[in-house]
Amino acid sequence: MSVRNQRPVPGSGATYRSGAYTSLLPWQVRERRFKVVGLGRRGLDPDDVYAFLDRVAGDLAGVHAALAESRRETAVIKDALRRWQSDQARAREARGGDR
Question: What is the pTM of this model?
């Protein structure tokens, strides 16, 4: 199991899921292969299946990229808020502790 598919660490802000559940990653969708059905049996056209899986993988990649960007923006905002709070605390102390 790769590090990316492991259970989130408590307190990390990640959603809890059971250890048996692993999120699908784009490469897992792209590399998924299905058994070929024998002659005279029904089945799906492999080209259609793989085209659809490629489309799903592309969408997943877009979601992962958007999530990563959102996390970067959140980190920047949190850092700015911490700096602002520290500045406000120093200013309050400089005024003698009154609000």
Answer: 0.56
